[in-house]
Amino acid sequence: MPDGGTAVAAPPLVRPRIGPVGILPPALVLAVLFLYPLALIVREALVGDVGTPGESGLASSLAVLASPFFVHALGNTVLIAVAATAGCVLVGLVLALLLSFVPFPGAGLVARLIDTFVALPTFLVTLAFTFLYGSAGILNEVLVRAFGFATPPIDFLYTAWGVVLAEVTVYTPFVLRPLLAAFSQLDRAQVEVASVLGARPWRIVHSVILPAAVPALAAGGSLCLLLTVNEFGIVLFIGAKGVITLPLLVYDKAIQESAYAIACTIAVVNIALSLALFGLYRMAAARFET
Predict the structure, then answer these.
(1) Cβ(281)–Cβ(226) under 8 Å?
(2) Is residue 114 a part of any domain in this protein?
(3) Does residue 32 sit within a domain?
């Protein structure tokens, strides 16, 4: 500080500029590890031989997209992803409201325990569900012994609903965490004023809390939709009869049947769907950050 007591402004921060040479190494890594394999998949989908005589690769790929097995897998993928995402949003919202606005001992511990599901492999959740709800699981064994059922009464696990329940269990933290962050920034005075004025809890949630939660719900929900569309381990491990999704269909065609061109065609559709959902997630996340 000079003698006159006037503060000296700090010099502006100069950011180093990265020229074309500096960009080249990461660009090469990206090209080798991502763009080149992706280009091979697209090429195989467009010009590969899918075993249909008299058809070009592109025509054969279009025939794959019109085939019943692809349409069935696409329908299963969309329905399961939408149902699981809706379940994650609903469960995540209820949990976030309880943890944020209904204080009880151990609320922080419960939130941290729920967060641990993010670190668990998906097969571990499905394995636990098999022990609990499977045909020879604990719950069926108790019911059979208690009521003398001839067959296990609970058999939803090996259906699409079992897949949805497992995905909701795994991916709910991706909705819960943004909601808890949004609720922590909410002005509690608004909630208190609404309560003093006689507003019922549901009215407070609808008029005060939910508007602040919409960006977080959109960000968490779009991320869940992206993850559930690409979920492979849960569907494979549960082995639900007739439940074939796009990732599982790619696995079946490539590994089980060695039909690589068909697998690449389906993979291109799955990639395009994933990129579209990722764009949706980025827009929602940007809205949440602002």
Answers:
(1) yes
(2) yes
(3) no
Rounded Cα distance between 111 and 271, Å, is 33
Look up residue 83 and give its two tokens.
Answer: 């149902």
CATH number at residue 142: 1.10.3720.10
pTM over 0.70: yes
Per-residue pLDDT of the chain (290 residues; tens, 9 = 90+): 555 555 555 555 555 565 566 677 777 877 777 788 888 888 888 876 555 444 556 788 888 889 999 999 999 999 999 999 999 999 999 999 888 888 778 777 888 888 787 777 888 888 888 888 888 889 989 988 888 888 888 888 888 999 999 999 999 999 998 898 888 888 777 777 777 777 777 877 777 788 888 888 988 999 999 999 999 989 988 877 778 999 999 999 998 888 888 999 999 999 999 999 998 888 877 876 66
Best CA proximity match to 217, nearest among 267, 285, 133: 285
Query: Domain total for the chain?
Result: 1
Residues 6+ apart with CB under 8 A from 162: 129, 133, 156, 238, 240
Domain that holds residue 78: 72-289
Q: Identify whether the C-beta of residue 220 lies closer than 8 Å to the C-beta of residue 92.
A: yes
| CA–CA gap between residue 201 and residue 94 (Å, rounded) | 13
